[in-house]
Each structure stands twice: as structure tokens, then as C-alpha cells.
Write a structure and sequence with these properties.
6-stranded antiparallel β-sheet, alpha+beta, HATPase_dom, ATP binding, nucleotide-binding, 3 helices, transferase, Anti-sigma-factor_SerPK
Length: about 150
């Protein structure tokens, strides 16, 4: 991940900070970007300290979204982390129009199936989940993970 990451105040919106790294190549890069964004706010959201478990949830969601974009979406085309009053807003864009799906833990023969658990994790931990088609092709998934 580049050291040219920036944190900026959004004009006209108090207590909203954006952390704009380059697109992560690996889920580990996305996890570090979330940690840096929260640390850049001195661990505070809305003047209250962030719960360590909540930060871990945001890191996990970032990891799951980027893993899905890499494995199933043709790669990450944009990644944004914004720390705001409600928590961390994560946006991950990829090249695919296919929506994420949750797979049953077992196949039709009752055998355990690898994977398929990331999307349910994202939906359970996020306060808000939105998906949008992109004009240039692909989709963007934006979630808000509460930090308090």
C-alpha cells in the first residue's frame, strides 16, 4: 500500500473524514486501510472511543468484500474508506455485475462446501448495505459498519 494515502475533511460535512488509498491488491491491504483510517481519527467516532471489537468487525468486512471482488468480481476497481459519525463506510467496486450470494454450508450430497460464508458475514455486521451498477461496468458495494 502506498504511503500517499490521504485523509481529508469533506467540505460542508462535520466529522466526516475520507481515507483514500490506492486500490488494495490483497485483503491485507484493505484491512490496513481501515485500521489507518480509524487510527487517523484517534480511535474516536462522534467524540466517543471506538470499541475494539467494532473495529475488528470493520476490518473483517473490508477483508470479505475485497476477497469477494478479487475471487468473484474480476478484481477491485475502486476502494474507499470513510470514517463518519455512524462508523466506517466501505465501498468496494469490481468489474462484475453479478450480485453476491450466500451458499449453503453443504452441497446437495451433504458434503461441506468451502467458502460461501463471506457475504452473510458482511450482511450481519453492516448497519447498511447498498449495491449499485457502475456506468463504466461492474458494481459497487457500499456498507456502513458501526464503530460504537
Amino acid at each position: 500500500m502506498s504511503d500517499r494515502n490521504t485523509i481529508e475533511t469533506v467540505v460542508g460535512q462535520r466529522d466526516v473524514y475520507r481515507h483514500r488509498p490506492y486500490c488494495p491488491r490483497r485483503p491485507a491491504d484493505a484491512r490496513r486501510a481501515v485500521e489507518r483510517a480509524v487510527t487517523g481519527r484517534r480511535g474516536l467516532v462522534g467524540g466517543q472511543p471506538c470499541d475494539a471489537d467494532a473495529v475488528s468487525d470493520a476490518v473483517l468486512v473490508a477483508s470479505e468484500l475485497t476477497t469477494n471482488a478479487i475471487l468473484h468480481g474480476g478484481g477491485i476497481t475502486d476502494f474507499r474508506v470513510e470514517v463518519e459519525r455512524l462508523g466506517v463506510r466501505l465501498s468496494v467496486c469490481d468489474r462484475s455485475h453479478d450480485l453476491p450470494v450466500a451458499l449453503p454450508a453443504t452441497d446437495e450430497r451433504g458434503r461441506r462446501r468451502p467458502g460461501g460464508r463471506g457475504w452473510p458475514i458482511v450482511c450481519r455486521l453492516a448497519l447498511d448495505v447498498r449495491m449499485a451498477d457502475l456506468p463504466s461496468g461492474g458494481k459497487c458495494i457500499t456498507v456502513v459498519v458501526p464503530l460504537s
